[in-house]
Amino acid sequence: MVDGKRQSGVVSPPDGGWGWVIVGCCFMMTVCTRAVTRCVSIFFVEFQGHFGADYSSTAWIHSLVDCTTMLCAPVGSLVGNRWSCRAAVMLGGLLSSCGLLISSFATSLELLYLSMGVLTGLGFALCYTPSIAMVGCYFHRRKALAYGLAMSGSGIGTFILAPAVQVLIELYSWRGALLILSAFVANLCVCGALLRPIKLREDEAEGEGEEGESVGEERLGIISSQDAELAIKLSKEEDSLLSWCFSSCFLSSKEYRFLLLPDFLGLAVSFLFLASGCSLPFVYMVPYALSVGVRHQQAAFLMSILGVIDIVGNITFGWLTDRRCLKPYRLACYVFSVGMEGLCCLFTPLLRSFPLLVPFAVLYGYFDGAYVALIPVVTSDLVGAPYLSSALGVVYFLHAIPYLISPPIGGWLVDVTGSYTPTFFLSGAAMLASSLVLATIIGIRHCRRRLAVIKDAKHQQLPLSLSNQSDCFIAFNKEVVSSSVAS
């Protein structure tokens, strides 16, 4: 993640300076990856007309791009750790640009599956994780704000690119639009070239949460000493099966020892639930609005509202959780935002008109932007800066399969029941389960700290043990004897 061999200076996170250039590069990366992925669906009508395919066959292109990006996220972490983030992003920009270029000459849907779905998705994966991890290397005090600005590129890019891509298709056909998108995505190589390596000071890298520890480990995301000792102990067991598996996959057990932490395992389970439910409202909100009598223009406007408010959530929630009063409770804020999204989905079937769906779009968009900005923050708080790139690779890898299968499952529920209610209930239940898992972890950590404090207090109040009492008695006798002899 950091190219220590090329960087002689050892510094602490600057929280500014060149770090804002890194934020700008990450912002542009999210525009070129996540926003472009969302705009792939604009080509569906053109693909259907040209290749004579149905919607389900065409929709696999979008699913493959999204799934490959998340499924290969650990590959991006591996390349960034072995060489540098700069090399990973530049290579990813080249692959994704070539994928779109080849797609502009496609003669079948199968070729689009490979070129746009697999090759472009792999390029996006090489760019995504290293760029996000670099922001965590350059920021500590204002980390949440930096991530909020960087991740807002997805919403801003979608808001700008969606109408632009439609105009390009009308002017130059879908082949010409893909060719221009290929040149646009090639800017990822420029962003990668600007990712200047930085080597963090060891005390900053290993103890990023020292500020929280000084106030009694108020931050819920800090690794406990027991967990750290367990991870170090297990990482030294070179003959263990886990170490052998890591070595066989060309991975270093030191880079992935955070996988042995119970708190990270709980976080991983919560991400699985979250990924299973968060994409369904984006896919089915417009069809649901049309089914309850909302006009096409108004239904499309709901998506615009959601995208714009998503940007507001990215930036404002990141700024708020960097404040001194909320900084120790970032994980709790993340749980709150995911839980609110779940509640919004549960109440969606009751909203059967455009004026009622507007508040849903506002609330869901805001909290969606909030939790997206906090994912790398809470992950960094949990595992620390040295493991952030590897941890983000695992985190986004966990999103891959749910992203691939949850939209078809939601569509199957609509086909079977003839209603969108079960789909939105599934989405809300999955996100509430995600927040419940993390809330349980927070409760366990709180109880653990309370018991440790009580145990320490009782230990300080206990009388001297028998051995200590006997030692004191012997010392007292010696002192009496020596004083009597002197007299």
Q: What is the global morphology?
A: globular
What is the succession of H and E elements?
Answer: EHHHHHHHHHEHHHHHHHHHHHHH
Report how far apart the termini are. Answer: 75 Å
Q: Structural class of the secondary elements? A: mainly alpha
**Beta strands, count:** 2
Strand order, biggest sheet? 1-2
Helical percentage? over 70%
Low-confidence stretches: 1-9, 202-252, 464-481, 483-487
Please tell me how large the radius of gyration is.
Answer: 26 Å
- Average pLDDT: 78
How large is the count of helical segments?
22
Biggest β-sheet strands, sense, barrel: 2 strands, parallel
Roughly what fraction of the amino acids lie in strands?
A: under 5%
